[in-house]
Design goal:
heterodimer, A: about 475 residues, alpha/beta, about 15% strand, B: about 70 residues, mainly alpha
Chain lengths: ~475, ~70
């Protein structure tokens, strides 16, 4: 390896927070970080196919401007000079935004998503858009229009979806952080499958203005990055009320990074005795239990307890987003169904026959179920933890519905069972890596807290990362 | 059951939304609805509508993390 390549590789291995600090101290320029990221995409994309579009010239021009500002003693914010790339469903005025679809291939929104604007106002550089499941609607990373995204740990395996490019690009050290979106697990599934950290906040925590809608009741905007600390910085930047999204919460956003003190003494961690381990793979269970031991060694107490109403949660969660996405896509499903992948049009189609009374029932039970959770679970524990995914990472071939892979539809349901239940509850949830299976694919677990307890779940995740190095492992860069 | 549900879905989608089965695979997704239907059957009587006005957003506030 040449000295220049070694230098670039060292830069891309920094965490987001380390990269921010290096820029701040003048140890590295934003131009150098941006060039390193763009080169990493160039090297990795041939195999993992993580990006949809990169804008080299504009990114470098912005980086140059940010370097000039810093030299003049000015910093825009806590992300000054650091390159990011985002799932291709966040609107940027005048820029193509495909949503991973053929239907929106030529779509150029007239306005910019609030989350993107907040990240850029904090000094980050958007260098491009990332691959994703078509209209954010599969948990595996298949994409019939832009090509499948691949897991950087093994190219035959799923990177997870729907924020597939976000998970793969962060894991492959192409980019320091990326926005994903999470309606049924679409941040946490690629985080788990690719071995990175990803958080969805409490429902309503982050503005959805300018984010492609999938399901108004369950959509969440959130980041994927290398560490819990990176996610804390990104979530704090994008969180908070936005007048452009009246559904966003006015609850104050805390200083999440300040809460990361590693102290888990007396923290009570619940481990469910029902639902979340049904049919779980033994290797996943073993990695999860080992993770609980790590947390115990920091002073946390593990309590086994039942989560109430899980049968109802699982049933209701399975139809809410299906009905809402069918509604959103109705016109296109009438006029150009052939422009969808087989998997997505088939999934949407079933949504048109779910009776409204059941949809309303599903929505109406969210409040009572959340209150039951508040007393029966969070009256006893501070957070609860589960495997993010019950099964090991599957191959792309075994889950290819368009190719007619047997059992693929059922596998989709198993992959997202643990995550979509949390979306229905509306809780903050962070997924972090906790091991590898026998084939070398990552395993993750997710931590949930009360509504608006983002600081607490990030604190647990960060403490875990103090004592483990799963999040530091880097796949051999494909290509 | 499978054939029946597929026929019902086809009729509902056509009558209410003007959407036709897009491909053969859609039948597999349609058959998957039987699991949801069974789930609804099992939950009958467990939870009901609340008499007082409330909402999910209100429940988020009621159950949220309280800082000391």
């Amino acid at each position: 390896m040449t000295a220049a390549r070694e230098r670039a590789s060292a830069l891309t291995r920094l965490t987001l927070v380390q990269a921010c600090e290096a820029v701040q101290r003048g140890e590295v320029t934003s131009v150098a970080l941006t060039e390193a990221a763009l080169d990493a995409f160039k090297a990795g994309d041939a195999t993992i196919n993580a990006s949809i579009a990169l804008d080299r010239e504009e990114a470098l021009e912005t980086a140059w401007g940010l370097d000039k500002l810093r030299k003049a003693g000015r910093q825009l914010g806590p992300l000054h000079g650091v390159p990011l790339a985002h799932k291709d469903m966040y609107y940027r005025a005048g820029k193509p935004c495909t949503c991973g679809s053929k239907i929106r291939r030529a779509f150029r929104p007239a306005y910019t998503a609030t989350a993107i604007k907040r990240l850029e106002d904090a000094g980050s550089i958007t260098i491009g858009s990332l691959n994703m499941a078509e209209f954010a609607q599969n948990p595996t990373g298949h994409n019939a229009h832009f090509g499948n995204c691949h897991n950087p740990w093994h190219l035959d395996y799923c990177p997870g979806g729907s924020s597939s490019g976000s998970g793969a690009a962060v894991a492959a050290r192409c980019i320091y952080g990326a926005l994903g979106s999470d309606t049924g697990g679409s941040i946490r599934l690629p985080a788990s499958m690719c071995g990175v950290t990803g958080i969805k906040g409490t429902q309503t925590r982050v503005s959805r203005y300018g984010a492609m809608p999938l399901s108004f009741s369950a959509d969440n905007v959130g980041p994927l990055a290398r560490t819990a600390r990176d996610c804390a910085r990104l979530l704090r930047t994008i969180g908070g009320h936005d007048p452009a999204d009246p559904t966003s919460s006015t609850e104050p956003v805390g200083d999440y990074e300040a809460a990361l003190d590693g102290d888990l003494r007396e923290l009570r961690i619940g481990v469910p005795t029902n639902f979340f381990f049904d049919g779980a793979d033994p290797e996943v269970q073993a990695a999860f239990e080992a993770a609980m031991k790590v947390l115990e060694s920091r002073g946390a107490r593990i309590l086994r307890l039942a989560i109430p109403h899980m049968d109802a949660v699982n049933t209701y969660a399975s139809i809410v987003s299906r009905v809402e996405s069918a509604t959103i896509h109705a016109q296109w499903m009438r006029e150009r169904p052939q422009d969808y992948s087989i998997q997505l049009s088939g999934r949407l189609y079933a949504g048109y026959a779910i009776p409204a009374v059941h949809y309303v029932e599903a929505l109406s039970r969210r409040g009572p179920i959340l209150r039951a959770l508040g007393s029966e679970v969070f009256g006893k524990v501070d957070v609860f933890a589960t495997p993010t995914i019950r099964m090991k990472v599957p191959t792309l071939a075994a889950t290819d519905i368009d190719a007619g892979a047997p059992g693929a539809i059922e596998a989709f349901g198993v992959i997202s069972a643990n995550t979509r239940a949390i979306n229905y509850m509306g809780l903050p949830s962070v997924s972090i890596p906790c091991g590898f299976d026998g084939k070398g694919l990552p395993i993750g677990f997710q931590i949930q807290g009360r509504p608006f307890a983002e600081a607490r779940v990030l604190k647990v995740a960060d403490a875990f990362q103090h004592d483990t190095d799963w999040h530091e492992r880097v796949p051999v860069r494909p290509g | 059951m499978s054939t029946n549900i597929e026929r019902q879905v086809e009729e509902q989608a056509k009558v209410w939304s003007g959407v036709a089965p897009p491909n053969a695979a859609s039948g597999n997704f349609t058959r998957g609805l039987t699991e949801a239907i069974q789930g609804f059957e099992r939950t009958r009587g467990q939870l009901g509508f609340e008499d007082e006005p409330s909402s999910f957003e209100a429940a988020l506030q009621e159950t949220k993390e309280r800082t000391p």
